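Consider the tokenized backbone below.
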């Protein structure tokens, strides 16, 4: 039986935080987590995205949303469900973080200095700027 995106995402929990990487068990950042899960789920090479930069939070081009639109299926109502990707605003500004929704109102994401963890989604819910689902392989 093939795994769902959520099942792949769970396998990444405990991966160390390494900026710009997307290797399960070795290192990833938030974008690398989504890229890695996408690659494992679809069976394709890990998609390339612009390198993370500190100014993403002020970037009008919305690089996280642009990358998500290229590789994922944008969601409308009723909103994201477990296994979907959410792009989050940081400090109420531009999109600069992302993660994958887990069951039980949790979020799997890569935290700087911590790595990939599963945390309550409630603290992030109001910061959701964009949501999408993984494509059917």
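A designed sequence for it:
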């Amino acid at each position: 039986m093939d795994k769902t995106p959520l099942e792949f995402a769970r396998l990444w929990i405990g991966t160390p935080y390494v900026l710009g990487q997307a290797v399960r068990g070795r290192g990833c950042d938030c974008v690398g987590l989504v890229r890695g899960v996408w690659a494992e789920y679809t069976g394709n090479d890990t998609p390339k995205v612009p390198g993370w930069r500190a100014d993403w939070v002020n970037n009008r081009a919305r690089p996280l949303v642009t990358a998500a639109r290229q590789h994922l299926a944008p969601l409308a109502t009723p909103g994201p469900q477990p296994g979907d990707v959410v792009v989050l605003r940081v400090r109420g500004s531009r999109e600069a973080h992302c993660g994958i929704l887990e069951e039980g109102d949790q979020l799997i994401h890569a935290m700087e200095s911590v790595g990939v963890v599963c945390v309550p989604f409630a603290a992030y819910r109001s910061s959701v700027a964009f949501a999408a689902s993984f494509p059917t392989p």
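The helical segments are 5-12, 30-42, 63-71.
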